[in-house]
Design goal:
homodimer, alpha+beta, Arc Repressor Mutant, subunit A, 4-stranded antiparallel sheet, 8 helices, 11 strands, DNA-binding
Chain lengths: 226, 226
DNA sequence: TCTATTATGTGATAAATGTCACATTCTCCC
DNA sequence: GGGAGAATGTGACATTTATCACATAATAGA
């Protein structure tokens, strides 16, 4: 746990950039930065939601227990608030957040954060925008994932990682096969087989955890056709 | 189009109840009520999002074009804001809203609504709460729907209609078979078959559009086990 | 009322995916 | 470096669901 310096922080959220310097001072007094290692749980489904979690740096999976096992709902890259809906929406967390790589989280007192919403309209509006954009993205992904078959779903998340997360065609997979299957709601074996198939067809190459997209256009086609 | 009387309106949203009387006056001047018949499109995917839509009474489906056809994302019952995320999140609507029964919608000027957020913290907070609760519910449903098989998915939405929408075991189905299949992401034929099966087993009874849940415990069991 | 159109029910079959079993490989820790 | 446990690859088979084809029923207009 470190004493953060919110005023000087270069990784402020768009909302926090709209806070006055006295508000930032308040934030600083009601905020604690904690560093998580890969695999650490940041907050857990079923436990009390007592703080706002702000992902200052790192990568996190949001996941929830489903009828047949874990379901990964989304990956969150920094900078981003992690569980606004589960913190405001209910007293108890409805889902968990787990670090996929070493990550820095600032926990902000709920009362302080709420106070900013009440007293700083720009801050509130920025939070609303973030919530809205997230929902739009979620709906789009939900629709795609529910209508595409396995090859399309897998292609989509590989492309998503390449485009949204890493901005390159060659990257280290942040999820293992099991997690990939939790993400696209299928079995571990099916993911394994499909990745082999993509490899055989020269669409991707996998070396340990490192994935290279060789034929992006093919992957796009597979993703689109479902 | 009617001239609404927001100040006297008995169907105010939780957020609107927090507006001052002068704010309500402003709302009244920047708001128009329009009545939609069953099947009418309230706003359409791809068109400009220019107003906030508040569902004062009625029932609406939120739906989006997916890779293989229409996907119903959720049913919205009154009272509720309809497309906050698609209105704030982007200039263009990412999904459509269509009336399932005759519905009264108040369209509110976006600028006016935004002004309330900026100037009335309680209002903003209430909007944030609504967005957060929606996301929680969506995540839960998304997880369930992606992990359950067809019988479980169908059982779930029937129970949902019974519990959340109508609060009775006997109700008129608001969706036809095709829409049901768009909702649970399967084929029309599969829904038809599964409803027949539920009927044969005495779990439900269907008479035209009227559905009666006869063995709620059985339906719960089917929904839970996936 | 009649008819065209749309919605629904159902069998036969194909396709996709899950499940089980087991071999192999990787990784972490001593 | 070696071994235990976890992660991954892959074949065989079972299960689920989609698809096609067509019959029947409901509904909206003329």
């Amino acid at each position: 746990m470190a004493n953060p310096q919110c005023r000087l922080c270069g990784l402020k959220s768009p909302a926090a950039k709209l806070l006055s310097s006295s508000e930032l001072e308040t934030l600083e007094l009601n905020c604690a930065q904690i560093n998580f290692k890969k695999g650490d749980v940041i907050f857990r489904e079923g436990s009390l939601a007592t703080n706002i979690a702000y992902l200052k740096s790192g990568l996190v999976k949001i996941h929830m227990k489903g009828p047949t096992g874990d379901k990964i709902l989304r990956l969150m890259k920094a900078p981003s608030y992690l569980g606004l809906p589960t913190t405001f929406g209910d007293k108890v967390n409805h889902y968990s957040a787990t670090a996929l790589i070493d990550s820095h989280i600032c926990f902000i007192s709920l009362d302080t954060f709420r106070d900013f919403i009440f007293k700083n309209g720009s801050f509130a509006y920025e939070i609303i925008l973030e919530l809205c954009r997230n929902e739009l993205a979620d709906y789009q992904k939900y629709t795609n994932m529910s209508q595409k078959q396995l090859p399309g779903r897998l292609a989509e998340i590989l492309l998503c990682m390449s485009h949204e997360l890493y901005k390159t065609n060659k990257f280290e997979l942040p999820l293992n096969i099991n997690e990939l299957s939790d993400f696209i709601s299928t079995s571990r074996e099916s993911v394994s087989r499909m990745l082999s198939e993509f490899s055989k067809e020269g669409i991707i190459a996998i070396n340990k955890k490192e994935l290279t997209i060789l034929k992006e256009d093919m992957l796009e086609k597979i993703s689109l056709k479902g």
